[in-house]
Amino acid sequence: MIGTDTISRVIGKDVYDQSGEKIGSASEVYLDDETGQPEWVTVRTGLFGTKESFVPIRDADLTDDGLRVPVSKAAVKDAPKVDTDGHLSPQEEQELYRYYDMQVGSGQTDTTTGRTGTESTTGLASGTESTTGMATTGMTTGTAGRHDVDAPGTVGRDTSGPTTDNAMTRSEERLTVGTRSEEVGRARLRKYVVTENVSETVPVSREEVRVEREPITDANIGNALDGPAISEEEHEVTLHAERPVVEKEAVPVERVRLDTQTVTEQQTVTDEVRKEQIEVDGDQGTTGRGTDRRV
């Protein structure tokens, strides 16, 4: 008998009919909320596992090879089409019970009327619940919904940890690139003295001795006869010359200061980022084998 402690082992198992023929793979388990025991299992059938059919799991057996249900593959193939959207209507539940020729719910005895009556609730083991019941004058059923033993309101069951919801979140890392200012160096002004040779050209003049001779004329005869006729005499001339003179003085020539300017350039940043991939893996039916899809 399948119990709530083995639900996690049922999900994803291959499902075989009463003669051992494979039907498909188990997708979702519905619980009877009155007894807390599994009532239905949805089985994915078809070439790519796109069709899901409700199959009774009340008297099913779970083995290492898979799940064996007490109905035939043909019966599952022709089972009423019921949407696995998380809620079974009373009409859908009654239709399933009638189709598989099953009693509604757990089969409890109604001591008031002496008739065998039942009142149960069934829900999907991934978060829905439903209510079915039969009174002495007729059968009444409530709505069916999902009911998960780990997290109410979810579809499916996480096999790697507590069930959260009906979806798997795919995350990835992304680069956030910005800039920050940091000290990369320092610049300073330093004044020092160097010596260099400077050449300048300046004109200079000097006096030279030149001898001039003039003949005796009536104009200068008086000067010529002034003094003794024959004598010794000296005449002196002072000569002058210019020499270059150098003087030095310090004069300001410019003002120097430090300032900064911003230069923008393009730099390429390269790093590794991680991202999650989600793939679908599993048996997709008996008539063909589906391929893994990576999301």
TrEMBL record:
One GO cellular component term: plasma membrane light-harvesting complex
Coiled coil (residue ranges): none
Q: Give the Polar residues compositional bias ranges.
A: 160-169
Q: Report the record's Gene Ontology biological process terms.
A: photosynthesis, light reaction
Q: Which residues form the DUF2382 domain?
A: 168-280
InterPro entries named among the record's database cross-references:
Bac_photo_RC_H_C, DUF2382, PRC-brl_dom, PRC_barrel-like_sf, Stress_Response_Assoc
**Pfam family for this entry, one:** PRC
Q: Where is the composition biased (Basic and acidic residues)?
A: 170-182
Q: Where is this region: Disordered?
A: 105-182, 262-295
| Compositional bias per record (Low complexity), positions renumbered to this chain | 105-144
Q: Where is the PRC-barrel domain?
A: 6-74
* Gene3D superfamilies, per database record: Photosynthetic Reaction Center, subunit H, domain 2
Signal peptide per UniProt: none
By what name is this protein known?
PRC and DUF2382 domain-containing protein
- The organism encoding this protein is Geodermatophilus sabuli
